[in-house]
Amino acid sequence: MTTIHAIRSKRVVTPEGVRAATVRIRNGSIEAITGYNDLPSGKHTYDAGESVVMPGLVDTHVHINEPGRTDWEGFETATRAAAAGGVTTLIDMPLNSIPTTTTAAALETKRQAARKKCWVNVGFWGGVLPGNPGELSALHRAGAFGFKCFLVPSGVPEFAHVNEDDLRAALPTLAALDVPMLVHAELPGPIEEANKKLTKSDPTRYRAWLLSRPASAETAAVELMIRLAREFKARVHIVHLSSELSVPLIRRAKQEGVRITAETCPHYLFFASGSIRNGWTAYKCAPPIRDSQNNKKLWTALEKGAIDFVVSDHSPSPPAMKCLATGSFFEAWGGISSLQLGLPVMWTKMHERNFSLKHLLRWMCSGPARLAGLEKCKGAIATGYDADIVVWNPEKRFIVRPKMLQHRHKLTPYVNHALRGTVEATFLRGEMIYDRGRFLGAPQGALLRRGER
Ligand SMILES: [Zn+2]
């Protein structure tokens, strides 16, 4: 582990723009951004040359699954992948671990399980289940960053989905605490209707999976959440928005002052249904990856701000659960593994579409930091911010190979894809933790609590 006192580069991404500069670091924080040649004397300096110096990514949608399903993914492997991918802060979802993070005691169990294993900073979302509104204030006091719920079955039996009545019981508490309700926005009704027509279809056909999760399930859920956000003056955040048909609803609600935000994920922006071969269940997620027209419109929504930012929804499982042998999209685990690859996946497509580092900063650093209430200490290279920094080469290309992935399991739909952008070094509070494939020192990521520095 090397403590660094300054990082300089021809391309430092600051809130004001990209420029040649030196980032001075003291006691883990950014002390100042000075001129390129204004180096501290005799102190450890990292010269990034032409490579980009940017705040570490903030990924607010990660399923780590430990304890309970550590064979799916765990704190050690997930946070190594994060460090290698330039993610310096992640917020873990309340499900797939056992216990689910739905009581203050369960949050403590998770924190215990995470101790001394995290290479990057880790915070936790709590969960809203039918019947747990009494737990929410205690979970918030214990440091949960906000709450997540499902409106359809979640895929695991311990995390039941909620209906409108359950939401009505939980939202007054969340509004009073002023924390966001993160929602998996699909309603069961349109999905059940769609599935009635698909009983004879071949489960290995991607098209069958796509038809089984119609966009109407998402738009109906988004409509419901807008209505409730308005009524309760609550903060609502739509996770993994998949359909462009939901975008006008969100745009209008925002214009009316409803407190709603939305994220989408790299896979909805990188892939389109037309190129997913039948039986390729590594691509299965819910809601599903839709067609190329939809993909194009999601990019526009992101550019215009109707969609606020992009996070991974890294949700791996053991490869056997992806049912590659049968190729059944209906039996396979729904979740895409991608934590280490978010930056190059996004940058590859952003480069094709002429988006800039300024957009990347908003979509993968400052935007998600704001959702988690971390906007005053993470997601910017500015005086007083934590010196959580990624250095990466935006010109260098590589092909994704399983052996370069730090995820517990190497199965991902990005394998063999050519991507643009390689992470060279990652810094946490001014300490270099990752250097071109090598991990330095021991895991020293902080376990974050909401509102704490
Ligand atoms: Zn998720």
Characterization of this structure:
- With 453 residues, the chain is of the alpha/beta class.
- Helix content is 28%, strand content 22%.
- The protein contains twelve helices and 19 strands.
- The chain has helices at residues 75-84, 104-114, 136-141, 164-177, 188-196, 206-212, 215-232, 247-255, 266-270, 292-304, 342-352, 357-371; strands spanning 2-3, 6-14, 17-26, 29-34, 45-47, 52-55, 57-62, 87-92, 121-124, 126-127, 147-150, 181-184, 236-238, 260-264, 309-310, 389-399, 418-428, 431-435, 438-439.
- Strands 1, 2, 3, 4, 5, 6, 16, 17, 18 and 19 form a ten-stranded mixed beta sheet that branches. Strands 10-11-12-13-14-15 form a six-stranded parallel beta sheet. Strands 7-8-9 form a three-stranded parallel beta sheet.
- Helix 4 (164-177) packs across helix 7.
- The model has no long low-confidence stretch (mean pLDDT 97).
- It binds zinc ion.
- Zinc ion (ZN) binds at residues 61, 63, 93, 313, 315.
- Residues 61, 63, 93, 313, 315 line the site of zinc ion.
- How many strand elements? 19
Biggest sheet character:
10 strands, mixed
Q: Beta-strand level of the residues, as a percent range?
A: 15-25%
Helix content, binned percent = 25-40%
Continuous helix count: 12
End-to-end Cα distance, whole Å, is: 22 Å
Give the mean pLDDT. Answer: 97
Bound molecules: zinc ion
> Low-confidence parts lasting 5 or more residues at pLDDT below 50?
none
Structural class estimated from helices and strands: alpha/beta
Estimate the global geometry from the Cα principal axes. Answer: globular
Question: Rg to the nearest angstrom?
Answer: 21 Å
